[in-house]
Amino acid sequence: MKIAVAGTGYVGLSLATLLSQKYEVMALDIVPEKVEKINNRISPIQDEYIEKFFREKELNLKATVDYQEAFYDADYIIISTPTNYDDEKNFFDTSSVEDIITKVISMNIDTTMVVKSTIPVGFIDNVKKKYQIDNIFFSPEFLREGKALYDNLYPSRIIVGEKSERAKVFVDMLRSCAMKEDIPVLCMNNTEAEAVKLFANTYLALRVAYFNELDTYAELKGLNTKDIIEGVCLDPRIGTHYNNPSFGYGGYCLPKDTKQLKANYKDVPENLISAIVESNRTRKDHIAEMILKRNPKVVGIYRLTMKSGSDNFRASAIQGVMKRIKANGIEVIIYEPTLNEQEFYNSKVIQDFNEFKTLSDVILVNRYDDSLNDVLGKIYTRDLFSRD
Fold this sequence. Notes:
By secondary structure, this protein is α/β, with parallel strands linked by helices. The protein is built from 14 helices and 16 strands. The chain folds into two domains: 2-188, NAD(P)-binding Rossmann-like Domain (Rossmann fold, 3-Layer(aba) Sandwich), CATH 3.40.50; 224-380, NAD(P)-binding Rossmann-like Domain (Rossmann fold), CATH 3.40.50. The strands form four sheets. Strands 3-2-1-4-7-8 form a six-stranded parallel beta sheet, sandwiched between helices. It is globular.
């Protein structure tokens, strides 16, 4: 069995690594540097288990920039290319997914495409009609950044958007490479599977927004946020997880998926979905306002990354706070060890950590680190539980 994986971000690379334990896997990416790293067993993304597997496992994994080499003779082609939300069109930009689909069609090969990229509800049915094909189905992923391979080894569930033999084979492939036993499996139609992904991520965003608004209330009223959260969350129906305040939800999934679900509600009555999207903007406004009240001349940003254990800072909430602060004429400097550039969006990047701490009047910290213990008086954070 040969499997091709198009796209080597968190989703694609974790799946390629997982499946290459037992199957021949060819990973495709448009960035030559990433391909070279994968072939030299250097992970291009920060993920503890991918790095461990690259060091310790014999993986039948090869990467290439040539789509024909990747797709030729592949029994399954997993599509895990990025789908960013387009704010002007108010819809996902699915061009990268469709680009792979048209490439596969042009090769006229006998294969099955499995879309793992996040897509709008109804996408698979639409492309089937548009391209007059049937060899494609959707299978949502439920992965955390920095723990993507772990979440493939111990999945909460496996969902496929088809009730067919080829879908069953795909499920069996994933299960055979996982470490968890008795994994829940759900087979459903593609459209329902697409909805599961968007509703699951929007619920997670709702939970982030809820505890952030609780924290905003407590902060402005002079109350102890931690005591309130602990008291609320001891109710087993609520639970003591996913409740640590932050500067807002960010990263690859939650910002774009909540906006996409809101767009899918175009002709459906709703209040809550729009509120989840708006709440994230309100939270960033509040955080910026609290910083401005301190009248700093220089604000330091400690890490651009969305959360600890991740090297991704795409759509991280702290960037939204940065923009609001800079709009008020305050200088912003950045400490981000994964960034080699001297500037980030016209803000100076300080490579020396001690210099960064000295120059900053206030230091914004989305997720706290003990290396800041010597400048506690400068710190502004809402990280109460020292975890994500």
